[in-house]
Structure formats: structure tokens, C-alpha cells
TrEMBL record:
This is Acetyltransferase. SUPFAM superfamilies: Trimeric LpxA-like enzymes. InterPro entries: Hexapep (IPR001451), Trans_hexapeptide_repeat (IPR050179), Trimer_LpxA-like_sf (IPR011004). It comes from Clostridium drakei. Pfam families: Hexapep.
Length: 359
């Protein structure tokens, strides 16, 4: 189990650092929580670094019914400068009469997530992203591939691929390259190459001749994409995809299914696809069987009209799944950034599975 340079310095602040040159593969970092299993707080991709920063989070790393929303993902080859601040799980319900916190308002100190309010706790920073000094990222934000965030910026909404943003709130200043070049880079996805392929083409990576790079690798990437096998699966007007996290610490699969049924059980046009990797299914037969039993028990409830399907397939078919769905529900898996790329390239809306509520 990998431990991060991570320590609580106040009841609501966690300090973190992943030095440059030290993170040669994607790693999950865990936070020790008193009287609980180590919590998967951060996932940092290959050759990304965080000079130093803070995760500002719920008081005493609050767990509600054994669950916490806190989650940060950083993709590959991303650079995060000093004094970065990631705000997770610190929302106030402004739909209520008051946004204040007091024992006078309610005897039960557990948070109330009814109505329009959602507690957001996940931040996704994709690949080849640069965050300057003293950047603050709010919960629920996705910073897409190749983006740059100027120093002292406050990011409150998603940042498009290869955009340069700055200010408070951060706004688009310009794009690093033309739309044609950006589209080609997103097709090439060099950050997903092997170490050997990057080394073989090292001369391109500190060159400003981006056109030459695209000219060499774009057609190859297009050809490779054409080789992706199409799969035929049943779908409805509103089809949701979730990758099962049976064996992950603090897995959320039961919450996802329960909340889906609660929200959509009377909707005939809503389908939840629960993807299980074939190898994982073979190695966890009892868990797979328990899933079917869990679904069956929920489906016997009155007025149950939505659909839930378990889909077992080989890992190489994962990318094709995104061509057949409308929504992708994230979890804490180390593959979350990769799956968020698949969602983006297929115009699939991303829903954070660690938020409360999810839907």
C-alpha cells in the first residue's frame, strides 16, 4: 500500500506532496483515518508531480454512514505547482433558509442531502495539465487534457482541453493550439503511450513544431481507433455505465445501484449497465453472484420499471462501451482518468459516483 507525503495539519486540512521524478507509474495514495481502513484519497498518474498543496476537506475528514466524498485524481505527465488548494466536501446548502452550522438547527449532526443540494467531493485533473502557483480547484471540476491554469486562479467549472485559463473565477484566456491541432492531439493521446514509445520519439516532446508531431502520428492513431471492436449491447434513451468496484477499498457499487433505483425505478427509459471485467468476474464468482442477488432483491419492489444489467466482457472492450451509453458514473479506481477520456471522446456526460447524492 503506497503512502503519500500526506499529513493532517488541522482538522479540515490535509497537506500533500508528490515530488517530481519520483512517480514512475500511476499510484493510489491512502490516508489513515482513525478507527477505519486506510482511505483512497488521491490517485496520481505516471510522471505527474504535486510540488505541494492542500486538500481542504470536511471537518475531521467527516464520514457519513461509513462513507466519505473526498477524492482527487491526477492523470499522467501533469505538473501541479506550489500552494495548490483542492477543495472537496465543504459545500453549504444554500437552498436552505440558512447556510450556517449550529446544533440549534438540528439535533442530528449528520448532513442532510435532500432536495436540490449535492455534496461534491471529486476533482479530476487529466493528462499533461499544468497548474501554476497558488491555484484553487473547487469540487466537481474536471480539468481536461493539455490545459494550463494560470497562477493565483480560482477554478469553479470544467476547463476544456488545451485551454489556458486564469482569474477569479478562472476564464478562458486562449487556447494553446488551433482547434485542428487540439483535435489531432486528443486523437493521438501520446500520454497513454508506453515508456518505450515515448523514449523512441523523445525529440518531439520539447519541440514547438506540433504540426510535425501530428503529421507523424495522427494517421496512425486514426487507424488504431478504427481497429477498436464495436460491441452491440442493449440500450435505452438514458443509459448509464458504471465499472464495478467489488474489491476496491470503499467501493461504491451498492450505493450506485441503490440510488439509481431510488431515482429512476419508475422510469422505463433508464438503464444502468454494470460492467465487470471478465477476469475479475472469474476470480470473484461469489461477488458476481451476490450482485445478481442484490439486483433481484431491489427489482422486486413495487413500481419497478427501470433496467439494471450486469455486463461481463474482456478488458479490451471497455473503450467500445462508451459508444453505447449516455452517462458514465465515476468511482475511485485508478482508471478513472482514462475512462473520463473515453467519455469525453464519445460525448458521454460524466457523473461523479462519490458525490452525495449521485443523481
Amino acid at each position: 500500500m503506497q503512502k503519500l507525503t500526506l499529513r493532517r495539519i488541522k482538522s479540515m486540512i490535509v497537506k500533500l506532496a508528490v515530488p517530481a521524478w519520483t512517480n514512475r507509474e500511476t499510484k493510489m495514495f491512502y490516508f489513515n483515518v482513525e478507527n477505519k481502513d486506510s482511505f483512497p484519497l488521491i490517485c496520481v498518474g505516471r510522471d505527474s508531480y504535486l510540488a505541494d498543496g492542500l486538500i481542504t476537506t470536511g471537518a475531521n475528514f467527516t464520514f457519513s454512514e461509513g462513507y466519505a466524498v473526498h477524492n482527487l485524481h491526477v492523470g499522467q505527465f501533469s505538473s501541479i505547482g506550489h500552494c495548490s488548494n483542492f477543495t472537496v466536501g465543504l459545500g453549504h446548502n444554500y437552498f436552505n433558509l440558512t447556510t450556517g452550522v449550529s446544533e440549534l438547527f438540528k439535533e442530528n449532526i449528520e448532513p442532510d442531502y435532500e432536495g436540490n443540494y449535492k455534496e461534491k467531493g471529486q476533482i479530476l485533473i487529466q493528462n499533461d495539465v499544468w497548474l501554476g502557483h497558488n491555484v484553487t480547484i473547487m469540487p466537481g471540476v474536471i480539468i481536461h487534457n493539455g490545459a494550463v491554469v494560470a497562477a493565483n486562479s480560482h477554478v469553479v467549472k470544467d476547463v476544456p482541453p488545451y485551454a489556458l485559463v486564469g482569474g477569479n473565477p478562472a476564464k478562458i484566456i486562449k487556447y494553446r493550439f488551433s482547434k485542428e491541432i487540439i483535435d489531432k492531439l486528443l486523437t493521438i493521446q501520446w500520454w497513454n503511450w508506453s515508456d518505450d514509445k515515448i523514449k523512441e520519439n523523445n525529440e518531439f516532446f520539447k519541440s514547438q513544431d506540433i504540426t510535425a508531431f501530428c503529421n507523424k502520428f495522427y494517421d496512425e492513431a486514426v487507424d488504431n481507433n478504427k481497429k477498436i471492436k464495436d460491441i452491440q449491447i442493449s440500450r435505452l434513451d438514458n443509459t448509464y455505465l458504471f465499472f464495478m468496484d467489488f474489491t476496491d477499498p470503499y467501493g461504491i457499487w451498492k450505493r450506485v445501484i441503490k440510488e439509481f433505483v431510488t431515482k429512476f425505478k419508475s422510469k422505463e427509459d433508464c438503464l444502468l449497465i454494470l460492467y465487470i471485467d471478465k477476469e475479475s468476474s472469474n476470480n470473484n464468482v461469489e461477488l458476481t453472484n451476490s450482485l445478481h442477488q442484490f439486483i433481484h432483491e431491489l427489482s422486486t419492489s413495487e413500481n419497478f420499471k427501470c433496467s439494471i444489467n450486469a455486463y461481463i466482457s474482456a478488458k479490451e472492450n471497455e473503450r467500445s462501451l462508451f459508444k453505447n451509453v449516455d452517462y458514465f458514473i465515476t468511482n475511485r479506481s485508478k482508471y478513472t482518468i482514462l475512462y473520463s477520456e473515453y467519455a469525453y471522446e464519445n460525448n458521454v456526460k460524466i457523473i461523479s459516483g462519490v458525490d452525495i447524492p449521485i443523481f
